[in-house]
Structure formats: C-alpha cells, structure tokens
Amino acid sequence: MQGETTGRWQAIRSGFVATMIVWPGVAPFGMVYAVSALAAGLSFAETLGMSLIVFAGASQFTAVGLFAAGANPISIIAATAIINARHLLLAASTASYIRQSPGWLRAVVAFQLTDETYAVGVQQFEKTGGDAWFQFGANLSLYFIWALSTVIGSLLGALIPDPAGLGLDLIFPLTFIAFLMPMVRDRVNRSVALLAAGISVAAALWLPGSWYVLLAGLIGSAFGAWFAGVTPKTTPKEQL
Predict the structure, then answer these.
(1) Torsion sign, CA atoms 125, 52, 59, 31
(2) CA gap 139, 137 in Å, rounded
(3) How far apart are CA 93 and CA 87, in angstroms?
(4) Of the chain's two ends, which shows fewer C-beta atoms within 10 Å, N or C?
C-alpha cells in the first residue's frame, strides 16, 4: 500500500514538473486576464473564481470582453461553450488511457484538462501506456500557475505589460508543436495533422470567431478514425 501511494505521488510530481515548461507563457496571460476582468467590472472574487471554476484562458478572455460590452448572460455562456467544445475531443482521446482509474479521479482530470496538459499527458501515455495520476499532476501544475498569475495580475494591475508585445504569445504554439511532433510518426497521424492544419487555416480565413478550432478537431478526428480503420498496421520500423 505504501509503495502504491509513493508511486502515485511520484507520478503526480512528474506530471507537475513536466508542465512547468509552459509556465512562462501561461503566467503573463493569466495576469493580463485579471487586469481585463477587473477593468470590465468584475470583482477580485469573481475574477479569481472564473480562473478556478472555468479554467480556460480563451473562454475567460471572451467572457470578459462580452461582459464589458454588456452582452446578456446567455450569449456569454454560449460563446464560452463553443470555444470550450474542443475539450470534449481532448477528454475523449484521454479516456482510453485512464478508464481503469477511479471515477472521482477521472472527473478531476476531465475538469482540469487543457490543450497544454493534454499534450504533456498524451506524450507520456504513448511511452508508458497511461497514468491518470501523471495527468492529474500535469493539470494541477497549470491550474496552480493560472490561479497564481490571476492573483498577481489583480494585485499589480496596470503594471502588467502586454505579453504579445514581448513575444510571449509564441510560447503556446511553439510548445504545443514541440509536444506534437514526436507523436506524428505514422501515415495516419501525419495525414490527420495536415488535414486539420489545412481546415484550421481555411476556416480561420472564412469564419468569424473560434469556429476553426472546433471544425478542424471534428473533421480531423472523424477522418483519423476512418483512415486508421482502412490503413494496414505497420511495424515501428516501417513507421520510421
């Protein structure tokens, strides 16, 4: 029993540390979110509460912008739901790795799952076969820094510079690409990645808002499921 507990803590710690690589990109935007939320009229408790309950940067920025513009609550909820719809795909992909874990742990992992922690977790799952405790640690790491940066941003206010002006907005896509590339090893993965990228760019040019994220995820996932079913299995040597 003690050995099992020790193993869990080691997995949580490993996931927590592995996700610290994205802290420099997350923290500045958490601070800017806090400044934007307070400027829009939210209280400190409401600003921090959104980070703790919603825990989704893009959705929080959108919600704050709509709140400042005087949008009705239904519009705000609908907009954030559409942006967060991609998390359904992330959770579905992760489920196969952690389905043997306790229900409460899977629920916590699902609640805290984000793009970045998903990339960290799946990369580990590919190596070890899956560990919900590692994913929990990865999620907890980002949850911690997002909440902490929200508090700091609320306290420092206008002293927070624009992260995009410092080039920190590039950390998100570059980090995600670094996690993604080692997993794009065979023909199915490469085909899905190229198709999703093409759909994402095309939809971003022609559609408003963040619909391109959802469309690329849905169409790419459907194509990947179909293509994997009709593509002969290859050995690791053939994948290379």
Answers:
(1) negative
(2) 5
(3) 10
(4) N
The secondary element (H helix, E strand) that includes residue 79 is helix 73-84
Contact by Cβ (8 Å): 99, 131: no
Rounded Cα gap, residues 60 and 49, in angstroms:
11
User: Can you give the pTM of this predicted structure?
Assistant: 0.75
Q: Give pLDDT tens digits for 4-57.
A: 778 899 999 999 999 998 898 888 888 989 988 998 899 999 999 999 999 988
Angle at the Cα of 46 from the Cα atoms of 144 and 38, rounded to 5 degrees: 95
Spatial CA neighbour of 87 closest among 237, 204, 201, 217 = 217
| Residue tagged 């053939």 (tokens) | 238
For residue 83, give Cα distances in angstroms to 29, 56, 211.
Answer: 17, 9, 8
Q: Cβ(179)–Cβ(121) under 8 Å?
A: no
Tens of pLDDT, residues 149-170: 999 999 987 676 666 565 555 6
**Where does the pLDDT of residue 238 fall: very low under 50, low under 70, confident under 90, or very high at 90 and above?**
very low
Query: What are the domain boundaries of the chain?
Result: 2-163, 184-240
Are the C-beta atoms of residues 102 and 162 closer than 8 Å to each other? no
- Contact present, 134 and 121 (Cβ < 8 Å): yes
